[in-house]
Design goal:
Helix content is 70%, strand content 2%. The chain has helices at 6-30, 46-56, 58-74, 82-94, 108-133, 140-165; strands at residues 34-35, 41-42.
């Protein structure tokens, strides 16, 4: 009765790592290095999620990253429409699971996976920004350019920070 199966111990370890990654992401998301006027900010929130995905793979990373995205939404996120919630907090955070494409990898494979996550996140937030936050533009192209520029100001520095910190 006192001996746990090895897989049960492994499951508990993974669950503990997952909960820690989500909690750290929310905590680090509230410690803003730079905050933009319309709600964007540069944080280290992606670091524990990318590290978890790189350690545990895409499938487990995807679940944890989506949970973290919705935790961020519930903890002070800006929500103007259900589809915007999906793009900004569902897909954008799910993108971090790309790091799981290089499980336990180091070097260029991990860095490529982190960059891929940034590209997917930038795409999702640009679509959301162009559709839900770029009112007043006379053309769709203008709205997309604005959303891309705005989101690049936060996502590119976060990816650069992640490239430096996640491999550690």
């Amino acid at each position: 009765a006192g001996v746990m199966r090895s897989s049960t111990r492994d499951d508990i370890l993974i669950l503990t790592e997952a909960a820690t990654a989500v909690a750290l992401s929310v905590l680090l998301g509230n410690l803003r290095l730079l905050e933009l006027p319309s709600g964007g900010s540069i944080t280290l929130a992606c670091v524990p999620l990318l590290a978890f995905a790189a350690l545990r793979g895409v499938r487990q990373g995807l679940l944890v990253c989506v949970c973290a995205g919705f935790a961020h939404a519930l903890h002070g996120g800006t929500i103007v429409h259900p589809l915007q919630l999906v793009f900004d907090y569902g897909i954008a955070y799910a993108a971090y699971a790309c790091a799981g494409c290089a499980p336990t990898a180091t070097g260029w494979r991990l860095r490529c996976a982190i960059c891929a996550a940034g590209v997917v996140q930038l795409t999702a937030t640009t679509i959301s920004g162009a559709v839900f936050f770029a009112q007043g533009f006379s053309s769709t192209a203008g709205a997309v350019r604005y959303a891309l520029a705005y989101n690049s100001v936060t996502i590119i520095p976060e990816v650069l920070l992640a490239l430096a910190l996640v491999p550690l």
